[in-house]
Design goal:
By secondary structure, the chain is of the alpha/beta class. The chain is built from two helices and eight strands; from the N terminus they run E-H-E-E-E-E-H-E-E-E. Helices cover 16% and strands 36% of the residues. A hairpin with a 4-residue loop joins strand 2 (30-37) and strand 3.
Amino acid sequence: MHISGIHHVAIIASDYPRSKRFYTELLGLAIVAETYREQRDSYKLDLCTPDGVQIELFSFPSPPPRVSRPEACGLRHLAFRVPDVDAAAKELRSHEITVEDIRTDEFTGKRFTFFADPDGLPLELYEK
């Protein structure tokens, strides 16, 4: 097997318009396509990061909550690479998004911080 990279990450939102705004307007991800799937009463929004990784944002009627804290088993968080973690954190805070203190990865020496999407999904900013 030869894995050449990550193609996409899928996220289910409890409030589709709110999450769509968050990922497109606040985080600045580009919209590739938006589809309403009538048989599922669900939207699928394909987003893309500048390096080509896609995020699929789904809506479903009444999705069950997913435990994410304290450290539940499963996907832990989604990390975005940024050139300047201070500037990115400042921008998030200007939109009243709570951002944790910036820390330094003890193994790589890189700086990072965490914040959450509208449904509490843990997101990370990792300095390039």
